[in-house]
Amino acid sequence: MQEQERFFNELVQKYSEPLYWHVRTMVGSHEDADDLLQDIFIKVWKALPGFRGDSDVFTWLWRIATNETVSHLRKARVRAALSFSRIDEQAERISDPDPYFDGDAAMTALRKAIAALPDKQRLVFTMRYYEDLSYEQISAITGTSEGALKASYHIAFEKIKHLLLESD
Hints:
The chain is an all-alpha fold. It has helices spanning 2-27, 30-47, 57-82, 87-95, 105-115, 119-130, 135-142, 146-167. The protein has one domain: RNA polymerase sigma factor, region 2, helix turn helix motif (Rna Polymerase Sigma Factor, Chain: A, Orthogonal Bundle), CATH 1.10.1740. The model has no long low-confidence stretch (mean pLDDT 83).
């Protein structure tokens, strides 16, 4: 047990910040990202005894984080639908500046355009654009073929470009 605890502490120390930003780019809100990060590390702790090292630790952690984040976004979308909120309002909330983010108008417009993407496209775009992950890495994390990821990224890029041109 002590070995597992030591390994877990190393994971938390090494990956907390990059995982936070991975989640934050998807959910937009510091509070949501912070809560999700705690949930992610609880899942990691519970899953640690079953981790055999068949996959890279990075890939394993990102898969857990990605699944938790997508699940959170789905639940948020259902709650919004039940409360008759509009998707535009969700995108506004996700992209509103907060005390932890001080960006200019162009960055705010980009964040709003990214927030308006469907979850899968937002995920692929943020992992590729912000995190600079290869399609091979994203494929290992999401379980999606590289070809499908390239198509999703291209579609997301075109949608963002369209939304940014439209906002000018």
